[in-house]
Design brief:
Methyltransferase, Cobalt-precorrin-4 Transmethylase, Domain 2, binds S-adenosylmethionine, 3 domains
């Protein structure tokens, strides 16, 4: 008879408040043969707080591919493995993708043990639209690249969510103004589930002013949320769409170029058509 395979559990852990770990997560972490963790010292503290002594294996960005192969062998030999990250849900701006992919391809069962995730905690309390949202993880560290990434995001993706390092947040707010303008509504969610949890709602300028009032406010963990553009006037078209329209117009009639641009960027066809008309006047 063939060996019964182990299961890989993807276990969410707290993003601040230690009580946010689920009963099921605790039970799984107690029962598995191995806990794969980004930083075994950091996760060791959480598990000892929970009274769990586990066998750890380090799985981080730099060793994920090799480590995934050896974890697969353990799973195929019948041992259960739990994957955790330093905080929140593994794989969400955290390691684990190579391992999950390998397990799926090998037919090993991958089981979610859901729980805290900073982007969801931030979004559901921000007061911004939640019906549609787009998560872009961490933006690039350099301003030029950051603006490029922001420019390429179509208008119709709903609330835009990014993780941001405290030391870069003011520069990122300046780039948000450069790409989306001064008026765009934003929410900065800080230190979620921790003592100094705070949601700052406003424009890039008002949030920057709030950050500058107290140097401590530029520290800690942050999620930046950018509201969808308000219902638009005809002339308020995303710069990337304007560029696409210009490019297509060099090859296509206005009607076709406007229709294609509308489809690519989620803009209104009529507004694009009218804009195109102004260029030929
Ligand atoms: N896997 C995690 C999750 O599920 O949210 C995210 C890991 S990512 C490496 C860390 C980033 O998540 C931080 O830089 C910050 O942007 C965000 N983050 C994590 N914990 C947070 C918290 N308590 N408050 C605000 N943002 C947080």
């Amino acid at each position: 008879m063939s060996q019964v395979q182990g299961q890989l559990y993807i276990v969410a852990t707290p993003i601040g408040h230690l009580d946010d770990i689920s009963q099921r997560a605790i039970a799984i972490l107690r029962q598995v043969s191995w806990v794969a963790a980004e930083d075994t010292r950091h996760s060791g503290k959480l598990l000892s707080h929970l009274g769990i002594s586990a066998r750890f294996l380090a799985l981080h960005d730099h060793n994920e591919k090799q480590r995934a192969a050896s974890l697969l062998q353990k799973l195929q030999a019948g041992e259960d493995v739990a994957l955790i990250s330093d905080a929140g849900t593994p794989l969400i701006s955290d390691p684990g993708y190579s391992l999950v992919r390998l397990c799926r391809d090998a037919g090993v069962r991958v089981v979610p043990v859901p729980g805290p995730c900073a982007l969801i905690a931030a979004l559901c309390c921000a007061g911004l639209p939640t019906d549609k949202f787009h998560f872009i993880g961490f933006l690039p560290a350099k301003s030029g690249q950051r603006q490029q990434v922001l420019q390429q995001i179509p208008n119709n993706v709903g609330t835009l969510i990014c993780y941001e390092a405290a030391r870069r947040v003011k520069d990122t707010l300046a780039d948000v103004v450069a790409v989306f303008g001064e008026e765009r509504e934003l929410v900065l969610a800080k230190e979620l589930t921790k003592t100094f949890e705070h949601f700052e709602h406003g424009t890039a300028a008002s949030i920057t002013a709030w950050l500058e009032e107290d140097p401590q406010r530029c520290q800690g963990e942050m999620v930046l949320m950018i509201a969808p553009a308000a219902a638009k006037a005809d002339d308020d078209i995303h710069p990337a769409a304007v560029q696409t329209l210009k490019l297509l117009l060099s090859e296509l009639p206005l009607k076709k170029a406007a229709a294609l641009t509308a489809e690519i960027h989620g803009e209104k066809k009529n507004a694009l058509y009218k804009l195109g008309l102004t260029w030929s006047e």
